[in-house]
Amino acid sequence: MDIVKNKEKIAEFRKRAAELVAQMTLEEKVGQTLNWAPGIDRLGIKKYNWWNEALHGVARAGVATVFPQAIGLAATFDEDFLEEVADAISTEGRAKFNMQQASDDGDIYKGLTFWSPNVNIFRDPRWGRGHETFGEDPYLTSRLGVRFIQGLQGHDENYLKAAACAKHFAVHSGPEGVRHSFDAVASKQDMRETYLPAFKACVQEAKVEAVMGAYNRTNGQPCCGHKELLQDILREEWGFEGHVVSDCWAIKDFHEGHMVTKTPVESVSMAMNNGCDLNCGNLFHYLKQAVEEGRVKESRLDEALVNLFTTRMKLGVFDKLEDNKFNEIPYSVVDSKPMRELNRKAAEKCIVLLKNEDNFLPLDKSKIKTVGVIGPNANSRAALVGNYEGTASRYVTVLEGLQDYLGDDVRVMTSEGCHLSHQKAQGLGEVDDRLSEVRGVCAESDVVIACLGLDATLEGEEGDTGNEFASGDKPNLNLPGLQQHILEEIYACGKPVVLVLLSGSALAVNWADEHVPAIIQGWYPGAQGGKAIADILFGEKSPEGKLPVTFYRSTDELPEFTDYSMKGRTYRYMKSEPLYPFGFGLSYTTFTYSDVKVDKNTLDAEGVTVTATVTNTGKMDGAETLQVYVKVNQENTPNAQLKGIKKIALKAGESKTVSVKLPVESFALFDEEGILRLTAGDATVYVGGHAPDARSNKLTGTTNTEFKIQIAENKVLA
Questions:
Q1: Do the domain assignments include residue 344?
Q2: Residues 412, 319 share a domain
Q3: How far lies 441's CA from each of 413, 417, 420, 495, 502, in Å?
Q4: Torsion of CA 445, 449, 452, 455, to 10 degrees
């Protein structure tokens, strides 16, 4: 039993929290609703700043392990591994907290309430913050989100290791530039089918301690004061028992951006009355006036504070140090050798091999005298880390990883090639001022590694990015600046080329797909990323990552960015053929499926269990992701949707038999009213190593095993 199931312990904490709140003055209560809650000495309450981040490592508070960005972790398709990484993050978080508390340091980014994970759906590849998410699929996002939260919060029966927060609730995925005034309009069907499932899983399965509201409106109401979302769905329907926090300064948007209120007092009243307990920002100062004027009942304020202090008590900060085993975690675990090893493993597991013509990779260093490493991301630390990042004690760029790996055996030559997005690398130079160097390096090299893509100065959160395009969003899916030109120049030199893409989102590398023999998607692979990419390029490890997003051919295939209807979006609803499909990723070894079967052909209350024997029939050790998709065979239904995954590590020649359970809900769909229904007829279950689409079949040379499952009756499930 862990604390989320320890009802007696939680009831005790809530009782203690209520007793504490009852002793506070109105002014003291209001102060505790701000993220920088002041201390109340007479009650033994220390100051506490609720704002901390742990998206892919403890962020913004000094040295910590910088794991691959969330989108990269999603590419592992590995639930168990996500929990292992999150457990490591919370270990470092506790270690840093223990160290900071010893010096009475309660500054921002130094608490135990981590505002992670981001379980929004990456519905449009132009969205700048998409790399903070686990991709475009509600099922995958749900599974990875649940396990990440469980890793952060731990499984102790008395205390939370850390408090996780599912954000941004709900229907939030750009555009960044208008998020403070934008109304994301979504149908009941899309809400239930796409935008809400991950949050529901985080609340009901993972028992996430906090939920953060979004900046935007959803269907007319601002999310941080949205009665239907925060009360009707989150609290009453799903049974959420934690606390709700606003996004930072989102509540002032009620009257400044959304224009649904006229004054700050009206805004804070709307937020508090509709279920927001904590304000990231300073507007909740107006709650004192709101209570005094009768706009907010003091009992509602008390309820919010009980929610907040219950969280702090679950973290053990009001109990004796010796009562909580997490207080024993020493600072020495931070940035330790085991953490660096886990980080390197994470980087290796997230890399996706998109193309490998005639088994061009892995490279054989015994046959190479000189390697050229060219491109703006070749020696870029920024391209390793994404956003919401910590500070590593050492960063290993792609160039440095190759230099370390090849040592004195192979000459490594390099050129920046071009600026990441501008027309020249040197401010006083002429346009394309590194072209001669590119040609010179190519002429000397036996093989060229082109390191292109993006970094968090080009895609990210409004205000955090340095680009001149769209407040952190991408204007298109092209390689920015002169990168495409430089890639074509490298190719024209006649030497073999490998393209390594470092980005947090899909890029339309159509030309490269036609011309370059090998392409790797490295995401933002973390501080150890350069080592991992060298390991993959030279065959120390076989790539095992799968795409958690679709790679489109152009934005022409996409609906308007501001259109929140899912029609035409993501692999579940798109009609056109992708460049690289969701769930796709190649390996250096080969896998075969045998004895694939289902335990029944007619659906019953127990659901359907799929079993398969997977064999590594190649010469390298590797890992395969068994993927199970379901297509309900009715008109106007989504394409086959992911409903089961299982990561399988296999040595060369090894076989393993695995099973995936498909509950009844896997065969149901939401109707236009948001009601989950089984429809009499049949559904097709697809089992294999990729999605069951023509492009995946062509790229892999394999097809899925199919089963027809009969659905005997019409039935409402929810």
A1: no
A2: no
A3: 6, 10, 19, 11, 21
A4: -120
CA distance 164 to 242: 10
How many CA atoms lie less than 13 Å away from 539 in the CB half-sphere? 13
* CA distances in angstroms from 492 to 448, 486, 488, listed in the order given: 12, 10, 6
Range of the domain at 642: 591-716
Please confirm, yes or no, whether 459 is among the known catalytic residues.
yes
Q: Is 342 inside a domain boundary?
A: no
| Euclidean distance between CA atoms 148 and 119, whole angstroms | 11
User: Given 92, 136, 209, 247, which residue is catalytic?
Assistant: 247
Q: CB–CB of 153/205 below 8 Å? A: no
Statement to judge: residues 537 and 602 lie in one domain? no
In this prediction, residue 463 has a pLDDT band, given cuts at 50, 70 and 90, of confident
Question: Is position 420 within any domain?
Answer: yes
Q: Using DSSP bridges, classify how beta strands 715-716 and 676-678 pair: parallel, antiparallel or unpaired.
A: antiparallel
556 and 413 in a single domain? The answer is: yes
Domain assignment present for 9: yes
Question: Is residue 406 located within the same domain as residue 487?
Answer: yes
Residue 233: which CATH number?
A: 3.20.20.300
- Asked if pLDDT for residue 629 goes beyond 80, the answer is yes
Domains of the chain: total: 3
Token pair of 25, please?
């003055």
For the stretch 258-280, pLDDT in tens is: 999 999 999 999 999 999 999 99
pLDDT at 168 exceeding the cut of 60: yes
Q: What does the block give as tokens for 350?
A: 């997230």
pLDDT of 471 strictly over 90: no
Catalytic residue among 459, 462, 544, 624: 459
The tens digit of pLDDT for each residue in 202-213 reads 999 999 999 999
Task: Give the number of other CB atoms < 10 A from CB of residue 183.
Answer: 17
C-alpha 261/C-alpha 661 separation (Å) is 48
Establish whether 462 is a catalytic residue: no
